[in-house]
Specification:
The structure holds two protein chains of two kinds.
Chain A lengths: L8 H23 L5 E3 L5 H7 L3 E3 H10 L3 H10 L12 H8 L15 E6 L4 H11 L5 E5 L10 H4 L4 H5 L1 H22 L5 H27 L7 H13 L4 H20 L9 E6 L14 H4 L1 E6 H10 L9 H10 L1 H6 L1 H14 L4 E7 L9 H10 L4 E6 L9 H16 L2
Parallel strand pairs in A: 1-2, 1-3, 3-4, 5-6, 5-7, 7-8
Helix pairs in contact in A: 1-11, 1-12, 2-10, 4-5, 9-15, 10-12, 10-14, 11-12, 11-14, 17-18
Chain B lengths: L4 H10 L1 H10 L4 E5 L5 H6 L3 E5 L20 H11 L8 E5 L3 H16 L8 E4 L7 H20 L7 H21 L1 H4 L7 H13 L2 H13 L11 E6 L6 H8 L3 E6 L17 H12 L8 H14 L4 E7 L9 H10 L4 E7 L6 H19 L1
Parallel strand pairs in B: 1-2, 1-3, 3-4, 5-6, 5-7, 7-8
The chains are: A alpha/beta, B alpha/beta.
Chain lengths: 426, 381
């Protein structure tokens, strides 16, 4: 029997880095009035990282609001302002902090007027929130990256997306995305009075690929090691910190340290759950307001969540290799052009997750079907069918990703427990 | 005895499948499409025959249920059911526009089905990746998509589309739009002669029938209109989620109102603007579909709201009913601004949010609408 897990040093370092980033944001932006950008998660933050302009990711800020259990307040505000209760919750929380206008309540003192709001128009909503948010800031600049759609879901995207992305994502779409990125760079340079350094941009792009390789290395360690050397919440902390800082040397150094520590723990038999008997996938978006839920099934069932889509999407989805004579902007275009589609469209979603189930030696999957964010619910039925067909039992939990008001923790724990007893434990 | 133009249009609207079968039997090569964002001009220029498809409330999702989440718009679920039932297998091609996220998702589901049901009789299906960001970069992308669609139509048996053919098709489609503009006073005028439900049928039939037949029937309707409707009911505009079928309009009118305008993807703003007949026809077509048609992705919102207000003012409405689908995640963002604009002009508004498309709560809807109509009456007294 191994000793119970202690929190990884890498996790503490990731949290410290997040605090440093927040401190920098407070000093440079809130107090110093410096430029920063509010950006959709699936947008080219790399451009701003190269320009050394802080980026606040919508998904990250939403998750922080949810983790601080502030979402009920902002959803009540949404209701009072006339936005009906069926509207998307995940992306609207940061917007609501601006409409609320109370910096004492909002995380990190709220968001001041940004240099730019960057929306990617994947669904039909981004332009509507973006326009109103811009107005709420008193006329912030809004840049909308339109979202072209792939005509054919060619198989095995995760095997082809790193080198064979030109055919996978279709040339007209990439041409369009490159043009949009050029426009974005021009706007950003004009607004910030900075210039995008081509050599630094190329280096940022290479560093993202290197970070992706390290995330893949971490995956290999976790996937082959039983019991798993890290809990899912700690995986998320480490990988997401690197994701939000992608392109930095810190992300590479951090992921290297994370991998080294995973290797060491694997060698010593240090485990998230020493009595691991079952391995589970968490499918679809994260349960950000209650990441402790992932660990509720370890003591009674020895059931450990070892994978969520954040575990290694950085390695499979972000890496885009390009030659020394190639335009790195085209690789950047390829990175985001079908990112959500790979995670949510029926064919692409299922084939990747089935592969992860096999790689991570998983016995079953728990799938979150989000309410109040139907975009993230699309594709879940066919994905569940495909997983079942592949011999992986699936439990679907219908819940909000961010609204704690709609979550009955005891009932959900009971539901997962029943699923494990009925369909997984042999 | 021959049907009146209104009866002929209503019959074509009511039986879209029968109309499609008859057109197919007459030798037409049918290209089906959804919504108002597929360029029928291209289909016509290729020598093919467009038919707009809508969901039928009778098509409850049975075969569709295992694949499609309940959070899709009800009408899209009905369309998917009809597709799985083979109802649209007679089409030479089906075009799905990207102008709405749920229809984009529908496209990917259609493409996924052969893996699960190899025997499903689905028509060949193509995505039309129209984007509506109002920018030059997007215009260039849309131009490429427009030409790619023309090539796909040629592969489906159509002719190659050149400028001359396209210009001719634009004139044909504009003539149909003009006929609807000429007919609009029949339901929007000071003395309405058509109910709002009949207006929806006329607008809908215009794209279920071929353009020549539809134009002829609508022009005949304008030439010999029915008599004015009796009474002086409050004049209402219905806005929100697409109301391709007349159920809700009929319910509103049965409560004592006269629906004089519709602002949704089956309504009055779908025909109000012609495609320019000047200059390069490809660029004119792109400009129209990228920037001039209403839709959930069209923006800036302020311009869309001004067009909505212009319609409400031109129709001299006494009130507006905004109805959103049960799982709407888009239009609700517009409501607070739209309510403020209406309030500023003293136009009362009833908001029916999250309304199921299948089995709508008719008693509750009737109560809300009746109370709204009564409140308008009291205010006007």
């Amino acid at each position: 029997m191994t000793a119970p897990q202690e929190r990884m040093a890498a996790t503490l370092a990731a949290q410290a880095h997040q605090k440093e980033t927040q401190a920098r944001f407070r000093t440079e932006v809130i107090e110093g009035g410096g430029d920063y950008v509010i950006a959709d998660a699936v947008t080219p933050h790399e451009i701003f990282h190269t320009l050394d302009i802080p980026v606040i990711s919508l998904a990250w800020y939403s998750a922080v609001i949810a983790a601080k259990r502030l979402s009920p307040y902002y959803f009540d505000l949404m209701d009072r302002l006339g936005y009906h209760d069926g509207l998307p919750r995940y992306g609207s929380l940061p917007f609501m902090t601006t409409l609320d206008g109370d910096p004492d309540r909002a995380p990190y003192g709220g968001l001041p007027k940004p240099m730019l709001i960057l929306e990617r128009l994947r669904g039909d909503v981004g332009q509507k929130i973006g326009e109103q948010w811009s107005r709420a800031f008193g006329g912030a600049n809004l840049f909308a990256l339109d979202s072209s759609s792939v005509s054919e879901l060619r198989p095995d995207w995760f095997k082809r997306s790193q080198h064979d992305w030109e055919e996978l994502y279709e040339t007209p779409r990439l041409d369009f995305q490159v043009e949009q990125l050029r426009n974005l760079i021009a706007v950003s340079e004009t607004l910030s009075h900075r210039s995008l350094d081509m050599a630094e941009f190329r280096a940022v792009m290479h560093r993202v690929n290197r970070a992706g390789e390290l995330v893949d290395k971490a995956k290999q360690i976790i996937a082959r090691t039983r019991p798993a050397p890290v809990s899912l919440p700690e995986q998320l902390t480490n990988i997401m910190a690197a994701t939000w800082s992608r392109g930095s040397q810190w992300s590479i150094d951090h992921l290297q340290a994370y991998c080294d520590e995973l290797e060491e723990r694997a060698a010593k038999g240090i485990a998230a759950c020493p009595d691991e008997r079952l391995r589970l996938l968490w499918v679809n978006n994260g349960l950000w307001f209650n990441t402790g839920f992932y660990r509720e099934f370890e003591e009674k069932y020895g059931a450990v969540f070892v994978w969520s889509m954040y575990s290694n999407f950085f390695s499979d989805g972000y890496r885009k290799y390009f030659g020394e004579n190639d335009d790195p902007l085209r690789a950047l275009a390829a990175r985001h052009i079908s990112m959500n589609e790979q995670l949510h469209l029926p064919g692409w979603m299922a084939e990747w997750i089935i592969q992860q189930a096999r790689d991570y030696q998983c016995d079953a999957a728990v799938m979150l079907v989000p309410v109040g964010d139907r975009m993230a619910s699309f594709g879940t039925k066919l994905c569940a069918m495909a997983l079942e067909q592949a011999g992986i039992p699936v439990l679907t939990l219908t819940a909000s990703m961010v609204d704690a008001r709609l979550w009955d923790n005891d009932a959900m724990i009971a539901k997962v427990g029943q699923f494990l007893e009925d369909r997984v434990i042999r | 005895m021959d049907k009146t133009p209104l009866a002929a249009l209503s019959a074509a609207y009511a039986d879209q499948s029968g109309t499609a079968r008859r057109r197919k039997a007459a030798g037409e090569r049918l290209v089906g499409y959804f919504l108002n964002s597929v360029p029928v001009e291209l289909i016509l220029a290729a020598g093919l025959d467009p038919i707009r498809l809508r969901g039928e409330p009778a098509d409850r999702p049975v075969r569709a249920e295992p694949y499609m989440e309940e959070y899709f718009d009800g009408e899209v679920r009905a369309i998917f059911e009809a597709l799985l039932e083979g109802r649209h297998a007679l089409l030479d091609l089906l075009i799905v526009p990207r102008s709405s996220e749920v229809y984009l998702q529908l496209y990917y589901l259609i493409r996924e089905i052969p893996r699960w049901e190899p025997e499903a009789a689905l028509p060949p299906t193509v995505l039309f990746d129209l984007l509506q960001t109002p920018s030059y970069t997007t215009t260039r992308y849309d131009l490429g998509r427009m030409r790619a669609l023309a090539e796909r139509l040629r592969e489906a048996g159509g002719e190659a589309v050149d400028n001359s053919r396209l210009a001719g098709a634009i004139r044909t489609a504009n003539r149909l739009r003009a006929s609807l503009c000429a007919a609009a006073p029949l339901w929007r005028g000071a003395e309405p002669r058509l109910s709002g439900a009949d207006a929806l049928r006329v607008i809908g039939a215009a794209s279920v029938l071929g353009p020549a037949q539809a134009t002829a029937l609508i022009e005949a309707l304008v030439a010999a209109p029915p008599p004015p409707l009796a009474g002086s009911a409050p004049r209402l505009l219905i806005k929100g989620s697409p109301q391709h079928d007349a159920r809700f309009t009929e319910l509103v009118e049965s409560c004592g109102a006269c629906v004089v305008a519709h602002d949704h993807l089956g309504g009055d703003r779908t025909y109000e603007r012609p495609v320019s007949e000047e200059g390069d026809p490809w660029e004119a077509l792109v400009h129209h579909y990228q920037r001039e048609i209403p839709g959930p992705r069209a923006y800036p919102q302020a311009r869309e709201d001004q067009r909505f207000l212009a319609l409400a003012i031109e129709a001299a409405v006494d009130g507006v009913i905004i109805i959103h689908d049960e799982w709407d995640d888009t239009l609700g963002w517009e409501f607070p601004d739209q309510k403020r604009l209406l309030d500023e002009r003293g136009i009362p508004v009833l908001f029916l949010k999250r309304q199921p498309w299948f089995d709508p709560p008719e008693a509750l809807q009737r109560e809300a609408v009746s109370n709204f109509i009564a409140s308008i009456g009291r205010a006007g007294a």
